[in-house]
Amino acid sequence: MQKGFTLAEVLITIGIIGLVAALTFPILLKHHRKTVIETSLKKFYTSTNQAVLLSVAQNGETKDWQFPSDTPEEIENWYNIYFKKYLNTHRTGIESVDGRNYFTIYFADGTAAKLTYMGHDWYFCLNAKYLQDFNKWRGSQCFLFGFYPVAGALSNSPSYSQKNFRNKGIEPYVKDIMTDETGNNMTDENGNFVHTTEKDLYSQKAWSKIIQLNNWQIPKDYPVRY
Question: What is the CA radius of gyration of the chain?
Fold first, then answer.
């Protein structure tokens, strides 16, 4: 007589499978999100800096680039001169993001960025929809980069950020001066600015720099949920 599984045995097996899936799925999902963030950040960093190198070959060293004024129209013109031919984009243009007009880049892989502060600050998000609320998603879906290859107003500052940016391409953003919880510049007992050091990266929420320094991998003590 051929024996088979009883209904109870089948239900128990299904239940065990369901329990294992319920326990492992969140872990797999978090690992997937982690991989997406790491891959996207590294790809953005690599592709934009490759564009810088290609542009330098045609337009000269970045120290001679003419950075624009702080209007979206001028930033767009600047981008069209120095970057347009060298980045794989879906479209670009000026549009309202989070209540203000910005020059925005939509990359072919679905990621996006808005450019501000005379083309120096690049607000990058894994999906364009997150640009509308960048600060809410910063560190999980959105990350800040900077392009400060030429010494500017803070050229005499012995700060970590000058080491981070000067004579380089597009780098993860690091503040030049530490700020307190209210966003004001921190000063010492003599009234001098307190400059950023690498150990301050967590307190200033320099998430893209933290990940870069960990070989483009989210560290185990990363405090932002993703």
Answer: 23
Q: What is the pLDDT of residues 44-103, one digit of tens each?
A: 999 999 999 999 999 999 989 999 999 999 999 999 999 999 999 999 999 998 789 999
What is the rounded (10 degree) CA torsion for 219, 220, 221, 225? Answer: 90
> Can you give the pTM of this predicted structure?
0.81
Rounded-to-integer distance, Cα 36 and Cα 178, Å: 30
The whole-angstrom distance between residue 22's C-alpha and the CA centroid of its chain comes to 32
198 alpha-carbon distance from chain centroid: 18
Nearby residues of 165 by Cβ (< 8 Å), 6 or more positions away: 146, 147, 148, 149, 171, 174
Q: How far apart, in whole angstroms, are the C-alpha atoms of residue 21 and residue 91? A: 40
For residue 207, what is the enclosing H or E element? helix 207-213
**Per-residue pLDDT tens for 43-58?**
999 999 999 999 999 9
Q: Are 140 and 126 in contact (CB under 8 A)?
A: no
Asked if 211 and 142 count as a contact pair (C-beta separation under 8 A), the reply is no
